[in-house]
Amino acid sequence: MATLIAQTQRTSSHEIVEVVQAKSAEFNWVFFTVIAAFHLGAVAALFTFHWSSVFLFLVMWLLGQNVGISISYHRQLTHRGFTTPKWLEYVMAICGTMSLQGSPIYWVAVHRMHHQYTDKSGDPHSPRDGKWWSHMGWILRGSLHSETTMLSRYAPDLQSDRFYQWLAVWHWLPITLTAIALLCGGAALGGWKLGLSWLLWGVFLRISVGFHVTWLVNSATHLWGSRRFKTRDDSTNSWWVALLTGGEGWHNNHHAHPVSARHGMTWWEVDFNYWGIQLLGLFGLAKNIKVMRPRLNPDDRTNSLSLSSR
């Protein structure tokens, strides 16, 4: 399926560039080396157990995965499901860089492309091209990593913002400074063994697990699960992916209504990330929260829902 390549059509007046995912003949050894190194660090973390390290893992997970990837990168920046003051938007975006999944411009552009081509030719990571491809093969053999300039066309709102332009270049800096702070802070309080434990748990283990949790949304929730809505793709609702991600596993709900800041649409569809957005709203920090609410009977499986903006 993902066999199209970036194509350029020239006219006398302007140039039209279309970029979609392609299977590259070249293996991305740089990405592989980084991913492998972090997985080795994750294994090493298991031999440096400290309760304080577990606490740091949880705090960093909350900031990096829930606040950074799910709430900021996904629900706010990609789909504009709610708004916040600019300073808070920027802070949450920095949290997203702490998961080492790329800059906001790159992440948002790839995800918007996924929604445009979902499970069709051009989808960056459709399981129709293979289960392994959808999970992480697209990162190691996909062409999108080298198409950063053209990818930005999918995120013109971010590309026009100087802060996100800066973060596109320096997105590695926050996690690097955090890693140094954890190593030195732990060493100062309990010696180098504690410092190393804080580093391995707060950075290497947390990021490695975060990789796979995010990739499971790309793979598992297009393979296994239930379907409430009759979407034109293979998206499903997966309760176990939802638990791992804080609510991103209600993927069929999301593909049916991508603008909604709420993905869990019944009381039992736990959506911690939406609760976080609600908490921001309670303090007046999140506004224009778009929520899809069923208006028909519970047995109706159509896409008819009403949109309320708070």
In short:
With 310 residues, the protein is mainly alpha-helical. The protein has helices spanning 29-45, 51-78, 86-97, 104-116, 131-141, 148-151, 156-159, 162-170, 173-190, 192-219, 239-245, 251-256, 272-282; strands spanning 7-10, 15-18, 290-294, 305-309. The strands form two sheets. The protein has a two-stranded antiparallel ribbon with strand order 1-2. A two-stranded antiparallel sheet has the order 3-4.
Spatial strand sequence of the major β-sheet: 1-2
The number of helical segments is 13
Counting structural domains, the number is 1
Q: Spell out the helices and strands N to C.
A: EEHHHHHHHHHHHHHEE
Q: Strand portion, in percent? A: 5-15%
Radius of gyration: 20 Å
Share of residues in helices: 40-55%
What would the principal axes of the Cα set say about the shape? Answer: globular
First CA to last CA: what distance? Answer: 39 Å
State the secondary-structure class: mainly alpha
The largest sheet, given as strand count, sense and whether it forms a barrel, is:
2 strands, antiparallel
- The overall pLDDT, averaged over residues, is 88
Runs in which pLDDT lies below 50 for 5 or more consecutive residues are: 1-17, 300-306
Query: What is the count of β-strands?
Result: 4
